[in-house]
Amino acid sequence: MKNFLFIFLISFLFSCKKENIVCCMPPVETLPTLSIDGVSQAEGNNGSTDFAFTIKLNQASSKSITVRVTSKDGFAVAPADYAAIDKTITIAAGETSARVVVTVVADEFKEADDDFSLTLSEPSNASISTGLAAGMIINDDMKFQVSETGYTTPNTYAGMSLVWSDEFNGSTLNTSDWNYDVGDGCPNCGWGNNELEYYTAGDNLYFQNGKMIIEARKESKNGKSYTSTRLTTMNKKSFKFGRVDMRAKLPFGQGIWPALWMLGDNFTTAGWPACGEIDIMEMLGHQPNKVYSTIHYKSGTGSKNIEKSLVNTASLADEFHVYSLVWETDKIKTMLDDKVIGEFSSAEVSGNYPFNEKFFFLFNVAVGGNWPGSPNTTTYFPQFMMVDYIRVFQ
Asked: Other C-beta atoms within 10 Å of 127: how many?
């Protein structure tokens, strides 16, 4: 019987084609398709801001349509930056769109343009053509979020006097004491380390709440993909021996390289490394709880260094810490919150010992370079190094 029905159907279809007869077969239903548009708008300054996403059908349907909408963190993180959603949206029969609203947290603090995404899934009576949409939260603030928490040191030490300090209580850089080191380090481009930033003359420097703030940004300038600030006291403030305290809150992230350091006064005549270099604090952004102290000097015709380090219990980017140098004849000691990072002596140095002469200060946030490597997709910009004070006692 089955064979008979099959043969009959084949014969019928063949005869329809032969006689140019349109055979009546059930039409194949074409499902409408769903898509979702992205949203990009300012965050706002108070309370919250609604980001309204539109889910669209390419054509109206006689049936009610549902689809699941789920949010996913990007650089914006729920619930700090927005309210996560996971809900089912319905488009009524005859309608061609529906809205889904994501509540974004509005604040007054400067940050990057953060992002999150919405994903469509599990449609009924429809298929999905574009199932991913970006929510871009545009920064519209210039105020920095400054917390005072962290370690601090006294204004005086027994047997010593404060000979110079900068508490950064003003609104601009004190150019009687500080210089901007501008550019990309050319002709030795990349500042000798293949760094990726261009240092600006004030575009990346801010003052707020008694803090000096260096901002490392992802932006193009003069052939470089990042900008930052590098400051020196060369030819203005230099010192020989004593105790130096610097209170700072550090940036973090792959490819971020903050430093508080010193070079010998004869840098322009003797050159590096003969002038000597004292790195009181360096941190690699992918190791945010580890601090390095290093001395560099000339040995023979080349350079040599001695490196020490200390692992802190928490990230150095979480709060303020004090980075100190205790400096005597033939002896150097560096500290984090009065805990010893490293001790160095003339007996350890195999070449010229340049550290019994005057040195000047440098503060900077580098981006990229041979040591930290380049930023990647996990690196959040902008990054900030906040400096509360520098104090020199002798």
From this structure: 12
Count how many Cα atoms sit within 13 Å of the Cα of residue 188 in the half-sphere of its side chain. 5
**How many CA atoms does the CB half-sphere of 393 hold within 13 Å?**
16
Cα–Cα separations (whole angstroms), residue 125 to 26, 33, 92, 94: 18, 9, 11, 13
User: Could you tell me the pTM of the whole model?
Assistant: 0.84
Instruction: Name the region of 14 (left: φ>0; alpha: ψ -120 to 50; beta: rest).
Output: alpha
User: What pLDDT, in 10s, does the model give residues 73-131?
Assistant: 999 999 999 999 999 999 999 999 999 999 999 988 888 889 999 999 999 999 999 99
Pick the CATH number of 162-393 from 3.40.1050.10, 2.60.120.200, 2.40.33.20, 3.50.50.60: 2.60.120.200
**CATH superfamily assigned to domain 33-138:** CalX-beta domain (2.60.40.2030)
Catalytic residue among 282, 307, 328, 348: 282
For the question of residue 277 being annotated catalytic, the response is yes
Q: Is 15 helix (H, G, I), strand (E, B) or coil?
A: helix
* Whole-number Å distance between alpha carbons of 152 and 211: 14
d(CA 104, CA 102): 6
Domain with CATH 2.60.120.200 in the chain: 162-393
282 is catalytic: yes
Quick one: pLDDT band at residue 2, thresholds 50, 70, 90? Answer: very low
Distance CA 94, CA 302 (A): 79
Enclosing H/E stretch for 35 = strand 33-36
Query: Residues 111, 195, 197, 277: which is the catalytic one?
Result: 277
Rounded distance between C-alpha atoms, residue 225 and residue 214, angstroms: 17
